[in-house]
């Protein structure tokens, strides 16, 4: 009996020491560093899968334990996270993996009843590029400790600290804005530019017809490409072309290049279509449970909800405004909140990549290749070389701006590029018949095209450098922004109802056929800087 009592006393003493050490660890490592990595989530999935197979994790009755859904996060926390971290020293799963902590870049919100496999799959699929670590409630908090000491005030709680430190927010499928902390975050996300990671989206009114159109377009382009390439190959093999290609050979080479670029365009449009399928559903998911104001947001503990509402009681209007901008635009940033009253910013987060890719790629390639060929023929004039250099440098600067800009400015630049590309194509198609009627030579047509494209590129570069706020300060800047942000049949509108964004946030609508957003289904959304 004595030995048994001594053993119990030793175990109790050791347990208290371990508990104290766990508390000390969590106090020494800032709450916003209780993070895990993308690879940690992959490891967690393997561990849960092994636990299911070995019987260590037993799903509750009614839970779907399939690989697609998995046991609930609550079950995994009780039967895996708690036992594992208890044996390791009662720290959180995140600090068990990374005792020194990791910088918080992504905040992951989840629901306790959702399936862990589905949750992990969506998080890994939606993981913002360029970010390494994420703060997730079930993994960040020490599940074997009483964390009430960390929850003295909502403003100083681990959740709030992590939210204010992160650059991106991934939300679970129960209506993030229906939860008080995430709704509050929509306003306090001022230091970073936030947005809904809805993917690069393209015009879709009928998803099925778009898919058929893209497939047929690619097939026809490759049929025509093979035909023209066969003609070029036959000409060279037959020694019909000597030195530089004949006029017929040049035409066929140009046509090959054209069909190749067109097939790539259809492929990029299909990529945009696939990415866009989740856009509207993600927007609807964000609206789920939101009743028009943060005042109606829910919290698992009513006392916490009352405390949070008390802290932000004098900022409800600002928070609601930030949320309305988020719902309308797909992102809520200081720049968008400034212009939202006078510019229709609906779907500002959506931008297709097809136009931008072509503007930076094939058009630049065409300018370079035609100039090089003319230089080899000793037919290239100095002013044409200058135009080509301006064209190339402008594109390089645009690409650099895209890489270095915040997320809302990147979306803005993509929209600017797409709008100006449309203007360039319209100018070219409208003036080409006129030039041909005047019997202008091919070099003359190429020179005219370079001049127009350089003018548009420089204009585009100026707007991209100014950004959203700088453009808004220009004379007629709000009208310029309206044209850039507007979509479809609204493109020619120069002003809108100041409350248009609020109306847009009251329901989810399918974008116009000339817009850059589509329909589909997904349960995950993301806010990203």
From TrEMBL:
Membrane spanning stretches: 187-204, 216-239, 251-269, 349-369, 381-400, 420-440, 446-468
Annotated segments matching region Disordered: 504-529
Entry keywords, A to Z: Membrane, Transmembrane, Transmembrane helix
Protein name: Uncharacterized protein
Species name: Symbiodinium natans
